[in-house]
Amino acid sequence: MEERPEIFLYVGDSFIKFKLEMPSNNGMITNLDDHPVSVRVSEGNEERESESTMNWNQQMSLGEWIQHFRLLPNDPMSLHVQFYVGNIKFDIQSLRNTFPNLRRIGVTCLKEGLDESDILNAQNVLRAFLSDVQHLVLHCVPLQENLSLQHIGMTNLKELWVYYQKNLNFVDVAAWNAETCVITKTEDQMSIRDLNRFFKLWIEGSNPRLKEFSTYFGAEAIPDWNVLLKGLKSIEIEAEEEEGYEERKFTIQNNRGISAVLRVYYEQEMASVFFTLSN
């Protein structure tokens, strides 16, 4: 049997997982109006997970059943919905009908051999919620020029988390409007020079809404932080170093007199850079 599609709904610190058996389409859910044959429901949190099998009500679609189960709280900010591209053919209207006023979403695509349908499904999820969403997580999401990462970043998001997106340039990030931005890259995707340019653009006035920024990346050795700090007029305020480990803190200031703390960190072949406004 094909691997069953799964849908996760996160409410506060808890989650509910739907593992679905579909009657046809090789296990593919055509959209949220489809009627699964059966569903295995799990609920729990980080510490535990309990599971039970339930017979599906054939008179209810997936979207209607989610609504019936009352998973949607009155406060839209307490609900986070994670969409996995490749298992569901998302259409914009059924998404909006099922999840009105959604503020927190994640989109993940770990499927190999993406096709145009996968790209369209990812775009449909984003188009359905981008006007209202405030917290967005993207994980290897296929995007095109008509809805690029640059378009997404320029919306007024409170938080934007980006994992392993191809062709992501820190200079482009300087035009984003998110208040908090988290970026994870592989070692071969990382450019310290681009990151230096990003902070120079912040000093010149870019990213006026930015409050927190962090990036994580693999590194076989401690990066040359002098490349990162070149031209930033930084002042070192703290340093700690031992074999295979380093942590340093600096202050920088932009042309509007706004100060921020830069923290660089390295341990066990992983490096990170943190930016936080200090006033």
From TrEMBL:
Instruction: Please indicate which superkingdom the organism of origin belongs to.
Output: Eukaryota
InterPro entries per record = F-box_Sdz-33 (IPR012885), Zygotic_Embryogenesis-Asso (IPR053222)
Residues in domain Sdz-33 F-box? 149-214
Question: What is the name of this protein?
Answer: Sdz-33 F-box domain-containing protein
Q: Which species does this protein come from?
A: Caenorhabditis nigoni
Q: Corresponding gene?
A: Cnig_chr_X.g26515
